[in-house]
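Structure ticket #2291
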Amino acid sequence: MSPALRIDSNLFVRLALASKPLPVEDAADLPAVDEEIEYVHGYGYLVPGLDIALRGLAVGDEFTLTLDASQAHGPQDDDLVFDVDRSEFPNAATLEVGDEVWADGLEVEPVTLRVLEVRPDSFLVDANHPWAGRSVCYTARVLALREATDEEIAAAAEHFDSAFADEEDDETGDEPLVRLRRKDDPL
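Resolution: structure written out below.
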């Protein structure tokens, strides 16, 4: 009988994961998340503290963990709050405070920008994760584990590499660095 798999790099993992920002009473506008996720472990899919905490767990294992901001979504970065000219937004006339839009980069996944303020010629936006600067409580249950396929590992590695690619390696050409669109608009 082979030993039970335990979460480690290059394993395909399916988790039931619930998370909520803390303190809860100060985060009424930041709803908790309860989801089932699948990913290849070890490629930066999860926040650092959660990635570490899951290592060694087997199917059926459960835990609750509170991470401070440095191990969850990081500190609030004031450099990620900035003005964007109204002309850069599709449907600028319909945007309101609290709306979210995506900035599509050339090489990386879309970045969510939250509208903080509507100004005459621009929008003040925030590219920080909504839970940046907050502790986060996670509850997880391991639902399934298996060896990841070569294709899944390659895709996870490519995603990881593109998320941390040097800006000097980017080819800008005539393509804009970002393309803004409403978060709920199709690609």
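Closing remark: Confidence is low (pLDDT under 50) at residues 166-179.
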